[in-house]
Amino acid sequence: MLATRIHRWKSVALGTAAVLVGLTVPALTATPAAATTTAYDSTYYKNAVGKTGTSLKSSLHTIISTGVSKISYSAVWDALKVTDQDPNNSSNVILLYSGVSRSKSLNGGDVGDWNREHTWAKSHGDFGESIGPGTDLHHLRPADVQINSTRGNLDFDNGGSAVTNGGGSKVDSDSFEPRDADKGDVARMILYMAVRYDGGDGFADLEPNEKVNNGSNPYMGKLSVLKAWNEADPPSAFEEKRNQVIYDTYQHNRNPFIDHPEWVEAIW
Q1: pTM for the whole thing?
Q2: Best exposed site among 53, 204, 235, 254 by fewest CB in 10 Å?
Q3: Within its chain, how far is the Cα of 60 from the centroid?
């Protein structure tokens, strides 16, 4: 069963009402993510609810690192065919960055295929395809081979030129900007990785920062941009279902920022 999300507060645009009374309304900007409750708050998240800052981050790390099942990198192929299945076509998956629906059978390395995109670039911390961060489904997504290559190991930031067939994604010499519909997804995946992998399990301590060109360092930028993307693009039904499938069927842990996007601001 999908987690029940109940918004306690949310900024509401008054544009329609303003037009009716002849008022001028300023342009809206992204507002902080709405506080939520989920069906897991009294169980899975019970030791995190009500906390902030490093205390919240530490509690979430413990929660999402406990009782986790891990899969091999080869097994990721079949897992992604389930987690990212097109809700309108069970023979296809939805590709990150472009939004294209493509046949599940076209997984591979050739032009026209889709492959396994490490949203947290595997060179940032040098974990490669190791079981753990290299195979964590919460940041692995199907992506077009060529677009995946274009993104490479670039950090995330705004700006650049349009990516060919990228659905609105952009790229420049030192950063990649996903299409608007994927910006929040990317932010929440990156920040999940920063909480999940803290250096205590033999892998690098992954952290977001305010830089691009992080190279092989275990950092990913830019944090301020990722925070803005999280606020501007809240979790979709597709993202929530994906989180549930990973929890129920594969890793048995959750991305807390999909369930509670407001926790991004509470920690960072």
Answers
A1: 0.88
A2: 53
A3: 16
